[in-house]
Amino acid sequence: MPLFQYVARSGDGRTINGTAEAADQGSVVRMLREKGLTPTQIKETAAKAKAKAKKNKGKGGRVKLDDMVILSQQMAVMIRAGLPLIEVLDILAEQTERRSLANIMRQIEKDVEAGNSLTEAMSKHANVFSQFYLSMVRAGEASGMLDTILDQVATYMERIASLQRKIKSAIMYPVTVTLIATGITIFLLVNVVPVFQGIFEGLGGDLPWPTQITVAASNIIQKQWWLVGLIVIGLFVFMHNWGKTKSGRLLIDKVYLKMPLFGPLILKSAVAKFCRTLGTLIRSGVNILYALEITAKTANNAVIEAAVMRTRASIQAGESLTKPLVEADVFPPMVTRMIDVGERTGALEGMLVKIADFYEDQVNAMVAGLTSLIEPLLIVGLGLVVGFIVISMFLPMFKMIEMIAS
User: Which residue among 159, 173, 308, 394 has the highest number of C-beta atoms inside a 10 angstrom radius?
Assistant: First the structure.
C-alpha cells in the first residue's frame, strides 16, 4: 500500500507532520478528518512517487470514459474534504495513471493558478471534457456545489459506460462469428473448390447450378481478388464519407433503429441515454434550452438529435416539450406520456431519471436474451454456407454415379 507524507493543522492551530499508509490521497484525507485534523498538503513518498511516474510512463493513449469516471469521483471526494482546488488538481495530476490525462490536469492546474475558473481551464481541452461535462462543472461552480455535481457526473458517466459495454458485448459476438465464417468460406473457395473443379472438367457435361455458382465464386476470389478488394474498400470509403453528410447520417441511423434484433436494442439504449443526460443536466440547474442542445449533441444518433432540436425550437416558441417528441415517431408512447406528466406536474427531472432506469434495465435484459438467441442463429447460418459449398461439390459426383448406374 502506498505511503503518504502529510502536513495537517489541528483544531488549536498547530501544524502536524506525519506519514500514513492508504490506498490513495482521498483515504488519507478521510483518516485525518476523523482525527479532527485539516490536511494542507499530502504527497506520496519519493520511492512510491517514482514508481508511480514509471507506471504512468507506459500508459499513454486516448483518455477513456472510465478514466473520467475515476477522475470525477476523486475530485469530488477531495473537494468535499475541504482541500483547495489547486492542491486537488496537483494530486490528480500526480496519481492519474493515464499520462495524457495527467498532462492535461497539469495544464488545468496552471490555468487555474493564473486566475481562470475551472470551467474555463477545462474548456481548453474540449477533446477530453465534453460540453456535458463543462456545463455540469459550470453549474457546480455557480451553485457552490461542485463536489455534489461531480458525483452526479461520475454516476452519469459510469452508467453510460456500462450501457456502452453491454451494447458492444451484444454486437461483438455476431461480428466475430461472421468474420470467422467469412474466413472459412474463403479458405474453401481458394483451397478446396479448385481440386474438385479439375475433376469436373475431366468429367465433362453440364454442372448443376449450385456447383456453377460455387465454381464462379472460386474463380472470382482466385483470379480477381484485387477487384473484390477494391469494391469492398470503395464501398467502405463511400459509406464512411456519406455517413458524415447530414442526409447520409440520418438515413443510416434510421436503418440502425429499424434493424431486426439490434434495432430495438439501439433504440432503448438511445432513449436511456437521452433521458439520463437531460435529467442530470436539469437536476444540476442547467437551463432547459441549453440542456436540450447538449443532449442533442451527445445523442450519437441523428434521428434522436433531430427530434431533440425540434423540441428545443418548440420550447423557444412557447410550446410544450412533449409534442415534437411524439411527432418524431421515434420515442415509445410510454416515454412521451411520462415526459408529458413530468412536464405538467413540475417533476420532469425525476420522471426522466425513472425512464432512464427502466430502459437501462430493458437493455440489460435484451442483451442477455440476444446472446442466447444469436448463437444458434449464427451456427445455423455458418452451417448453411459451408453446407451449400460442400453439397455443390458433391452434386456432379452424384449425377455421375446415377449415369453409371443407369
Answer: 308
